[in-house]
Design a protein that fits this description.
Length: about 350
C-alpha cells in the first residue's frame, strides 16, 4: 500500500515513473506501436536483433526526475555527448553522428506556450538503428504531437522516420506561431490606423522578442539537417534520407516565414515611432504657439505693472482699450506669421 502511494506521488510530481520514464513504445513492421515498460524494453534490447528484425523502441524521459540520468548510465551504453546535452542550457542546435548513432539537441516551445520569450526549452535525442531516446525538462509541444500520432496508430518504419516526423511537427508548431503572430500584427495595425498607439508599443516589443528568439534558436536546425544528409550514417536507408530532407525543407520554409514576420513587426514599430514623433511634434508646436502668442501680453503686463512714473496712457481716458487693441493686433500678426511658416 505504501509503495503504491509513493508511486502515485512520484508520477504526479514528475509526470514519469520512478526511473524517469514518461512513456515507452515498441514498433514492429505493419503493426501499431505497443506501450512498453523499462524492464521489458531493456530485455528486448538485450535480445539479438535477428530475432526481431525491423523492430525498434522509443523511450521518452523526464529530466525533472533525478533518477533519469542514473538509470540511463546504468542500463544503456549511450555516448557521453548525449549526457552532456542533458545539462546544456538553451543554446545552439546539434544533430551529429556519434559512435554509429545520432545525438541531437533540438529546441521547441513549451506545451502551454503563450508568446513568452522564456517559453522555449531543449529536447535531447539519441537515435540508433533500434532505439530512440528523448529527454526533456518540461513538456514540449511537438514531442506531445508526435506521441499523439503514435497513439493514433500511425506506423513508423525506423527511429529516423520518428525523428523526421518530430521535425515536421516542430515546423508545424512554428507555422502555427507565425500564424498567430501575423493575426496579432494585423490587429495592431488596425489599432494604429485608429490612432490607438499606447496599447501597441509593449505588445509589439514582446512579440518581436519572442520571434527573434525563436528564429535564433531554430534557424540552425535545417542547416544541421542538411549537413547530416551530406554524410549520413550507413544504417540510414534512402527512404529515411528523403524524409529528413523533406523535413529540413519544411522547417527552412517555416523559419523563413518567421523572418518575414519579424521584418513586418520591425516596419510596424518604425511606423509606430513615426506616429509617436508626429504627435510629440504637434504637442511641441501647440506649446510653442501658446508661448509666442502670450509673449506680447506678458511683456506689456510686466512693463505696465512697474511702479515707476511715466507709464504710457496712464491718465488717458481710453488707455486700457487702446493697449488691448494693440495687443490683439500684435497677437494676430504673430499667429499669422507662425501659421504661414508652418504651412510652408
Amino acid at each position: 500500500m505504501a509503495v503504491s502511494t509513493t508511486m502515485r506521488f512520484l508520477k504526479s510530481m514528475y509526470g514519469s515513473d520512478v526511473h524517469g520514464l514518461v512513456w515507452g513504445y515498441r514498433f514492429a513492421p505493419n503493426e501499431p506501436a505497443a506501450p512498453v515498460t523499462l524492464d521489458s524494453a531493456v530485455e528486448w534490447l538485450a535480445a539479438p536483433e535477428s530475432r526481431r528484425p525491423g523492430e525498434f523502441c522509443w523511450l521518452h524521459f523526464s529530466l525533472s526526475n533525478a533518477a533519469t540520468e542514473s538509470w540511463l548510465r546504468q542500463h544503456l551504453p549511450l555516448p557521453e555527448a548525449f549526457y552532456e546535452s542533458l545539462h546544456s542550457e538553451v543554446g545552439s542546435t546539434r544533430l551529429e553522428p556519434e559512435a554509429d548513432a545520432l545525438v541531437a539537441v533540438l529546441h521547441d516551445v513549451l506545451f502551454d506556450f503563450k508568446f513568452d520569450a522564456s517559453a522555449v526549452a531543449t529536447a535531447s535525442l539519441y537515435i540508433a538503428p533500434r532505439l530512440l531516446i528523448s529527454a526533456r525538462l518540461r513538456p514540449l509541444r511537438s514531442v506531445d504531437q508526435l506521441r499523439a500520432a503514435v497513439r493514433a496508430g500511425e506506423g513508423f518504419r525506423s527511429p529516423v522516420e520518428l525523428l523526421a516526423h518530430l521535425l515536421r511537427d516542430q515546423a508545424g508548431v512554428l507555422v502555427d506561431i507565425v500564424r498567430q503572430a501575423t493575426q496579432r500584427v494585423d490587429h495592431i495595425e488596425d489599432r494604429l490606423l485608429a490612432n490607438r498607439i499606447a496599447a501597441s508599443r509593449a505588445e509589439l516589443g514582446s512579440l518581436r522578442r519572442v520571434l527573434v528568439r525563436l528564429q535564433r534558436l531554430l534557424a540552425p536546425e535545417p542547416a544541421a539537417l542538411f549537413r547530416l544528409l551530406t554524410q549520413p550514417p550507413g544504417w540510414i536507408v534512402p527512404d529515411d534520407r528523403q524524409d529528413l530532407q523533406r523535413s529540413a525543407e519544411e522547417f527552412a520554409a517555416a523559419v523563413s516565414d518567421t523572418v518575414a514576420v519579424v521584418e513586418r513587426v520591425k516596419l510596424v514599430q518604425e511606423e509606430l515611432v513615426a506616429l509617436v514623433n508626429e504627435q510629440t511634434n504637434r504637442t511641441l508646436f501647440v506649446l510653442t504657439m501658446v508661448t509666442v502668442l502670450a509673449l506680447p501680453i506678458n511683456l506689456v503686463a510686466g512693463l505696465f505693472g512697474m511702479n515707476v512714473g511715466g507709464v504710457p496712457l496712464a491718465s488717458h481716458r481710453h488707455g486700457f482699450l487702446i493697449v488691448v487693441v494693440i495687443l490683439l493686433l500684435v497677437t494676430v500678426l504673430l499667429a499669422y506669421v507662425a501659421l504661414g511658416r508652418r504651412r510652408e
